Amino acid sequence: MAKKLSNPSLAIGQMTSNFTTTQFRGSLPGANAQDNFVYQFQPSLPFPVGDSGKAFLLRPALNVFFEQPYFNPTTSQFEEQSTEFGDILYDFVYGGKSGLVLSYGVAGSIPTASSDTVGSDLWTLGPEILIGQVYDWGILGLLINRQWDVAGDSSKDSDVTAGQYFYGINMGNGLFFTSGPTFSYNHNATSGNKLTLPVGFGFSQTTKVGNRIWKFQVQYFYYVEKPDTFGPQHQIRLSITPVVELPWSK
Fold it and tell me: What is the SS3 assignment for 247?
C-alpha cells in the first residue's frame, strides 16, 4: 500500500491534511523577518472507470492562512492577517494505472478567499498533464499545468505555469524517502520575480492504525529560485493522510 500511495494518480480515496510553515526572504523592507503557517485540506476523490485501472480524479485543495504577512504599500511595512480562508484550488484529471503513469485534464482555482491578501479575485483554468514511471524501487514523475484567468476582477489578469515534480524511494516496511516540491512561473511578473523553484526531501511512513491505513509524511523545501522582492526561502510540511473507502468505489 505504501508503494501505491506514492503514486498520486491511483484510484485510492485519501483525505490529506497538510500543515506548512514558511520563512520568507526578499528585498522589501522587513521581508526577511516574515513567516506564516498554512493548513490545507486536500481530499483525493477517484471515480474508477470499469476494471481498466484508470479513473477520473478530483483533488480540491482548501487553504486556511494563519499569521499571513502582506506588504502595505501605503505604509511601506509588512502587516499580518491573523486567519484567512484562501482560494479553492483543484485539478480534475483522467488516467493512472501502474507502470507508466499518464493522466491529463484541467486545473484551476475558485476565488473564495476572505481577503485580497491571500486570494486573486480571479477564476483560473487551464490544461494539466501528469507523467511518471513506477519502478521496483519506487516512483518518479512530473505534473505540470498552465492556467489563465477566465473570469473575475477585470482589472487583474493571470498567466501561470505551475506543477510538481515528485519521487519516492522504497526503503521497506512502509517507509519511503520521498518528496513532491511544487514550482511556478508567473509569466506576467517583472524580471526577477517570475520563477519559484524549490528542492526538497522527506520521509513518509505508511502504517495501519486500528482498521485504517494511514500515511504520515514530513518534508523540507529549500527555494533555489524565488521572487526577488518577496518569496519563500525555507519550508517545512507535515502531512497526515487516512485512506478511506468511498461509497461509489465499493
Answer: helix
Q: Which three cell numbers stand for residue 8?
A: 498520486
Q: What SS3 class is residue 190?
A: coil
All domains in the chain, ordered by first residue? 2-249 (2.40.160.40)
The contacts of residue 168 (CB under 8 Å, 6+ apart) are 3, 6, 138, 139, 140, 176, 177, 178, 204
What the block records as the C-alpha cell of 179 is: 518528496
pLDDT digits (tens), the chain, 250 positions: 555 555 555 557 899 999 999 999 999 999 999 999 999 999 999 888 877 678 899 999 999 999 899 999 889 999 988 899 999 999 999 987 666 889 999 999 999 999 888 999 999 999 999 999 988 899 999 999 999 999 999 999 999 999 999 999 999 999 999 999 999 999 999 999 999 999 999 999 999 998 899 999 999 999 999 999 999 999 999 999 999 888 776 6
Q: Which residues contact 87 (CB under 8 A, 6 or more apart)?
A: 63, 109, 110, 111, 112, 113, 118, 119, 120
| Contacting residues for 152 by C-beta, under 8 A, at least 6 apart | 111, 120, 121, 122, 123
